[in-house]
Amino acid sequence: MPRLRGRPALPALLCSTLLLLPARAEEAATLALPQIDVAGPPGGRGSLTVPSVAEERRILNQTVGSVAFVDAESFQNRYANTLRDVLKDTPGVYVQERYGQELRLSVRGSGVARGFHLRGLELLQDGIPLNLADGSGDFYQIDPLALRAVEVYKGGNALAFGATTLGGAVNFVTPTAYTALAPNILRIDGGSFNTVRENFQVSRISGPVDVLLNGTLTNSDGYRLHEAQATRNFNANLGYQLAPGVETRFYAGVYLTDQKLPGTLGLLDALNNPRLASPSALSGNQSRKVETERIANRTSFVLDVGKLDVDSWAIHKSLYHPIFQVIDQDGWTYGVAPHWAGTFEVGGFRNETLLGLRAYAGQNSALQFVNVAGQRGAQTRNTLQSASNLEAYGENRFWFLPEVALMTGAKLFSANRTYSDKGGLPGNLGTQFADRTYEGVNPKLGLLWQPLPELQVFGDVTRSRDVPDFSDLVQSTNLTNTTFVPLQAQRAWTLEAGTRGRIDRLSFDVTLYRSEIRDELINFSTNAALGIPAATFNAPRTRHQGVEAAVAVELAHDLTGAGDSLTLAQIWTHNDFRFVNDPQFGNGQIAGIPRDVLRTTLSYARGPLAVAPALDWVPQGAFADHANTLRVPGYALLGVQASYAFDPGVTLFVDARNLTDARYISDLSAVTNAALLGRAGTQVFYPGNGRSVFAGLRGTF
């Protein structure tokens, strides 16, 4: 096990803070904040460890900053296979499919140029981290059919979880027996690309015990050659009320993924022959096989003032990943995170405080072999990657007027990254040992004004720091050698202002933000044809700014006198990510993400029937290179979703996508200068899926 590292004063300060909290577990009187939406969907009353969906929404809307809430009920009756299907209606969240379950997930340009997995955004399940200890993460263990809600905390607004990266955090909330939509759920769906998926969910409550089991099996050939996938996801939780005001809940999960990789293509092939797989993907039989097991616990105590939650978790991940070489890794991540939240009066004014700490670490055995048609050849690398983190954070909202709150907060952290190459292999010329510790303080200051129960205005300024993960720090110099690059942590100040609420038939959520960034971690593909992972460098100065807007208006109701409704919704995410006086790229745009992403839906509902055509429009595609010499074309995609609920508890749904069979680029891996690299050097494009239709049947009882 790796040793947790940090300054002795930090854990001592945190422990002393927690010891000062009242320890008697009694029900505390709390003052309810004004809220935007108190009406919750079906899902029960919640419990001490996991509140009801309505209460989760209320807590999220207390945030002084830009946040979003997605009720899983909104995507139950459609084909929700990836996180794009879950988050595509969330402003400010850029999510695009690459292949299978692999996608790009970015908030405010987090990991803007990274062409694989995730950086700069923390993923949590039930408030407990899913990322590895070095901060890296992927999406394979998140099952949309095992969710009850999704909470998006953009940028520094994720301080409530202890996260202070540029992108923030996304919390995936799974149901309990108290919050489940039904005690029993059975579902089967499928369609294009020979896709078949089965899902079950069973939940029960017996006295002080509640239990829920959820499982999903998915098989699909995929749109492209060499894209077949098979996934097996299992989630369970067991809650027990130990005493009045004390509850514990255990979580367990097993996630198995076998995904063939189609690779990237040149621009012409991606647009004209999108079903092709890259030659290197075929010759190397490239794939990604992941076995992940997760266990976690939350134990909650009601105190004289507020509530104390103590989280702990352990994640085991085994990865077999033949790409340019066979990546063979096996590792553990584990941690503990107590956090307390309470409401009390200060001088007769309402005050809300949150305090927490997180101590987590991980160790990963990272081996590499020559790729012989997807099998291990000669070993080329034998390394050990260790990461440890100590964090303390706090946030306070002081309501100095009944409708105005001053928010202050900060996070202190110490993060260590240790790399050890055990060597002894022929041709091993890389770094043998490296050790780097990153430390800092991330403050936050903001104001929240709530003049009406359903209207909020906010503004805040936050500081973020993104610590490099091992994909950044350990870079391939050629097919056999790697070296440890001592990158700086990415630092940014972000200013945001926005409003959210509802006025009569109009609902809205609009935020403007600007981030001034130092040493941004920027990726670029070093050899696209061979599939060597991207290199990373620190850009001296960059700027991210944009608009995150969602507006919906009920155009009409009772059109036929039957209680029906017609609603128009518009999502607009404007991205302006650029270098600032860069010695190589000047003030050009950072490659990877288009400037404008729009989604328009027109929803009609009448009793058991719901129909929603949608238009996804990208007016101008993203630049493929940081020199801005190559831009992909824009596109427009037309789709429609429809569902009909039969009595009792049976729903049939259809989801048709890209009805015009448009050819477009879904995502890409950035390069430095496409004009200098030629055709072979710019095989960095992922073609989007063609026309597809999915249908399913869901039963609840």
What does this structure look like?
Residues 1-25 form the signal peptide. Its main location: membrane. It comes from Methylobacterium crusticola. With 701 residues, the protein is mainly beta. It has a single domain (9-700), classed as TonB-dependent receptor, beta-barrel domain (Maltoporin, Chain A), CATH 2.40.170.20. The chain is 6% helix and 55% strand. It is built from seven helices and 33 strands. It has helices at 9-19, 53-60, 83-87, 267-272, 279-283, 470-473, 674-677; strands at residues 67-71, 93-99, 102-107, 122-125, 128-129, 149-154, 168-173, 184-191, 195-206, 209-220, 229-243, 246-260, 287-302, 307-322, 326-346, 349-372, 375-401, 404-421, 433-452, 455-466, 474-476, 482-484, 490-503, 506-524, 535-557, 565-579, 596-606, 609-618, 635-646, 650-657, 665-668, 685-687, 692-700. It has a 22-stranded antiparallel barrel. A hairpin with a 2-residue loop joins strand 17 (375-401) and strand 18 (404-421). It is globular. The two termini are 46 Å apart. The model is unreliable at 1-42 (pLDDT under 50).
